[in-house]
């Protein structure tokens, strides 16, 4: 059995979405056990509600631990992790730190608090400068692309970008079966000499690593083209990139829907294309792709969107499960030691 801790608070639809997603994950993964952290009374009531829908056999693989406090996104991360040891997030972090049978955790709570707690309480892999987030987005050719980093390291240098390329490559290969991932460096142009000093220094470092399939610089407009499997960037640029793409996708779908409903002839045409629109919505729905793994941490940590629904929570749990089953951390340490 693989045991994973789930922080049941911190999201827009928590804790209901978290518990529903937990049961969905248990149905998919028969070798999974979950530890749910939250207020015992509230979480147990939700567990009983879901058990009536899905059966008591799934409930037998759930343990609830009492965690009455919540770390909000408005709190200073270092103060919150010190002052709220009974929060749902810190209960999960401490389980990872002290219980060797707990393989990973999932949280959709405060990003800053999660990074600080994971780094300070769990620690980094040997040779890792700083852990990094790597979310996944769909591409236009039906594939996926990872973005590393997307917010964990706002300030970076060339050596960190090089490490992001190493860790991200291992993740894309082991978690998603992408053989020899095509790695690009986010830049303002595709030419090797383009960019600021950090990217100019990072380019030869990444290109010179025989374990990385480096294909050069990438402009942001090509992120979803399907030409790349992993895009390396600093946390500031990566966060802006990911949120811009997600926001654009949502806005375009809303605009398309509004346009179809504006005239009768568009409504009639929309009926004939309903299947296509449904496929587009499914493809562009970032909730289906889970959250961001915190690469470089000693234990598996997955950070989901604050707006995560049960589908996204379930996917985040699947990500944690997969990352644990393929010994990814051992491979990262081996490559960094070279």
Domains, number: 2
Low-pLDDT regions:
none
Q: From N to C, what is the helix and strand string?
A: EHEHHEHHEHEEEHEHEEHHHEEHH
Considering DSSP H and I runs of 4 or more, what fraction of the residues is helical?
A: 40-55%
CATH superfamily of the largest domain: Isopropylmalate Dehydrogenase
The tally of helices reads 13
How far is the first residue's CA from the last residue's CA? 33 Å
Largest sheet: 7 strands, mixed
Shape verdict: globular
Strand order of the largest sheet: 3-2-1-4-12-11-5
Average per-residue pLDDT, rounded, comes to 91
In CATH, the topology of the largest domain is named Isopropylmalate Dehydrogenase
CATH architecture label name of the largest domain: 3-Layer(aba) Sandwich
Strand content: 15-25%
Structure summary, number of beta strands: 12
> Structural class of the secondary structure composition?
alpha/beta
CATH class term of the largest domain: Alpha Beta
Radius of gyration: 21 Å
Question: Secondary-structure blueprint of this entry?
Answer:
Layout (H helix, E strand, L loop, with lengths): L1 E6 L8 H13 L3 E7 L1 H15 L1 H4 L2 E5 L10 H7 L4 H11 L3 E6 L3 H12 L9 E3 L1 E3 L5 E5 L9 H19 L5 E5 L10 H11 L5 E6 L11 E3 L2 H26 L3 H9 L1 H11 L7 E4 L4 E4 L6 H16 L2 H10 L1
Parallel strand pairs: 1-2, 1-4, 2-3, 4-12, 7-10, 8-9, 8-10
Antiparallel strand pairs: 5-11, 6-7, 11-12
């Amino acid at each position: 059995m693989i045991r994973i801790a789930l922080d049941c608070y911190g999201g827009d639809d928590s804790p209901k979405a978290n518990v529903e997603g937990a049961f969905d994950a248990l149905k998919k993964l028969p070798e999974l056990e979950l530890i749910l952290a939250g207020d015992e009374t509230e979480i147990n009531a939700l567990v009983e509600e879901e058990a009536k829908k899905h059966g008591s056999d799934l409930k037998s693989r759930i343990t609830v631990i009492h965690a009455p406090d919540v770390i909000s996104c408005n709190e200073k991360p270092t103060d919150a992790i010190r002052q709220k040891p009974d929060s749902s997030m810190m209960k999960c972090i401490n389980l990872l730190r002290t219980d060797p049978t707990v393989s990973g955790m999932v949280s959709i709570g405060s990003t800053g608090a999660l990074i600080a707690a994971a780094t300070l309480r769990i620690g980094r892999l040997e040779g890792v400068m700083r852990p990094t987030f790597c979310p996944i987005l769909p591409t236009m050719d039906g594939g996926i692309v990872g973005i590393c980093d997307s917010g964990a390291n706002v300030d970076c240098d060339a050596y960190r970008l090089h490490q992001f390329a190493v860790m991200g490559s291992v993740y894309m290969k082991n978690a998603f079966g992408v053989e020899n991932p095509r790695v690009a460096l986010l830049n303002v142009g595709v030419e090797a000499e383009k960019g600021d000093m950090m990217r100019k220094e990072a380019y030869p470092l990444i290109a010179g690593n025989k374990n990385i399939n480096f294909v050069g610089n990438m402009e942001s407009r090509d992120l979803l083209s399907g030409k790349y499997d992993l895009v390396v960037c600093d946390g500031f640029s990566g966060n802006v990139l990911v949120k811009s793409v997600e926001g654009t996708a949502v806005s375009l779908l809303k605009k398309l829907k509004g346009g179809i409903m504006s005239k009768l002839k568009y409504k009639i045409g929309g009926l004939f294309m309903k299947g296509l629109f449904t496929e587009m919505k499914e493809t562009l729905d970032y909730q289906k792709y889970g959250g961001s793994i915190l690469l470089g941490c000693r234990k598996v940590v997955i950070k989901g969107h604050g707006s995560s629904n049960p589908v996204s929570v379930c996917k985040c749990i699947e990500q944690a499960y997969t990352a644990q089953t393929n010994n990814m951390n051992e491979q990262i340490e081996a490559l960094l030691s070279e």
